[in-house]
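Much of our argument rests on the idea that a fold can be written as discrete symbols. Part of our work consisted of pairing the sequence of a single chain with a tokenised description of its backbone. The amino acid sequence and the backbone structure tokens for this protein are reproduced below.
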Amino acid sequence: MNEISPSNLPKSPFEMIGKDWMLITAGDENKYNTMTASWGGVGVLWNKNVVFAFVRPQRFTFDFLNDNEYFSCSFFKEEYRSALAFCGKYSGRDVDKAKECNLTPDFSEDVPFFSQADTVIICKKLYVQDMTEDNFVDKALLSNYSDDDYHRVFIGEIVKVLKK
């Protein structure tokens, strides 16, 4: 993989995240976990290029994101759609997702991602905040939280973008 500028992402972040999905991965070479996400964003905050990731507290990846300074967002070609669906359906508590999906872990400065990814964004965690019911202006959105399991927002500075 070659390093590219964040301004040279191959597609719109709306398409990459919302349509193609991504794997959010955190941990280290000894232990990591990944999960599929289709919510998130890329932008500029505090004069830094950043990624916004949203993770519910019951997700196994949640603790890995909390406990590590870095995380990755991996984007794949359409042929990996079934692997992404699998990683979104099953928990890393119960199954080795990489093994089940034939994904090969790779590492950039101890940050896990998958070698089959077409594009990888490596992020340094800058800020986290829990979403709360009180902060929803549009109360209709609360229907996404029937179990009161509000997401935690992770904001990470983009420190590296890798492209095949």
Summary: The longest strand covers residues 119-130. The mean pLDDT is 96. Residues 19 and 38 are 7 Å apart (CA to CA). The first helix runs from residue 13 to 19.
